[in-house]
Write a structure and sequence with these properties.
Blueprint: H1 30-50, H2 56-78, H3 83-116, H4 118-123, H5 129-157, H6 166-193, H7 197-213, H8 226-234, H9 236-249, H10 256-281
Transmembrane segments: 58-77, 89-111, 132-157, 169-192, 199-219, 257-276
Organism: Streptomyces yangpuensis
Membrane topology: Multi-pass membrane protein
Length: 283
């Protein structure tokens, strides 16, 4: 009589622990996602506190640009002695410019964080990938609000007057924030795509210069040649500048507000998914 011996299979060697980052981002609930964003916002804010020099652009850029354009170009555009009229023209336009310049800093900051290995640590944690980028945008929007507050303060000292209502002023600020946050996704995508922060800055300037100076921020389009007027009419910065100017000066806004919102929605819808995907895949 033969005996059959049964052997138990040897326990398999424990494999490497599965990193928490491998779990699907979709499993993270809204409350947890918001908590992650809040923690990352606090981390970024503390980083600014430890490096106050990072606020120099926000503190001094509105002052320098306002004084420069009012006293250097104001007389030429509005006539000598009419700088006060030019203040009401250029300050609302500069609100659009503040958002674009601060958005550029987001791209260089993201690129620098990858160089330091900060983003690799975030990607190894069980948090939504989008929360890292959204926290960046929240902090930069806060910096943008500081810049706009300083811009308006300088504008009031130079004779800026609100000819509509305080609500319209806040609507103009909110519109600038919405469009600025949309632009930040463009520069985040650039920061994740370009190899160095210097390359991000160089590419950003190639985008910024034509959009800023080929717009209605500094001068009425009627003073420009016909071909440039056509470019200005389709420039999203012109729509934002015209909307903010109309809201502050109490003039008809026309289609500028809706065009600004449409531009913001379109830019965000295209660049936000691309930025989050690039963030996941970047090595």
């Amino acid at each position: 009589m033969s005996t059959v011996t049964t052997t138990k299979p040897a326990p398999s060697a424990p494999g490497p622990a599965r990193p928490a980052a491998a779990h699907g981002e979709g499993r993270i609930g809204l409350r947890a996602n918001l908590r992650h964003i809040g923690a990352l916002v606090r981390r970024n804010a503390l980083q600014i506190k430890q490096d106050p020099e990072s606020m120099f652009d926000v503190l001094f850029m509105p002052i320098i640009f306002t004084l420069l354009f009012v006293f250097v170009f104001g007389g030429a555009i509005s006539g000598k002695g009419n700088q006060a009229d030019y203040v009401n023209y250029v300050v609302p336009g500069l609100m659009a410019m503040m958002g674009m310049n601060i958005a550029m800093a987001v791209g260089t900051g993201v690129n620098d964080d990858f160089k330091k290995g900060v983003m690799d640590r975030f990607r190894s944690m069980p948090i939504a990938r989008s929360s890292v980028l959204l926290a960046k945008i929240v902090v930069e929007l806060g910096r943008m609000m500081v810049a706009i507050a300083i811009l308006l303060g300088v504008g009031f000292m130079l004779g800026l007057s609100i000819k509509s209502s305080v609500l319209d002023l806040f609507l103009a600020i909110g519109l600038s924030a919405v469009f600025g946050s949309a632009l930040m996704w463009i520069f985040i995508l650039l920061g994740l795509t370009m190899k160095t922060a210097q390359a991000v800055q160089g590419m950003a300037m190639l985008v910024l210069m034509p959009l800023q100076f080929g717009s209605s921020i500094f001068a009425p389009p009627s003073t420009m040649p016909g071909w440039l007027q056509s470019f200005t009419d389709y420039n999203p910065l012109s729509n934002l500048a015209d909307a903010a100017r109309a809201l502050i000066n109490g003039t008809p806004v026309g289609d500028s507000v809706w065009m600004t919102l449409l531009w913001s929605l379109a830019i965000t819808a295209v660049t936000m998914p691309l930025a989050v995907r690039k963030f996941r895949q970047k090595t």
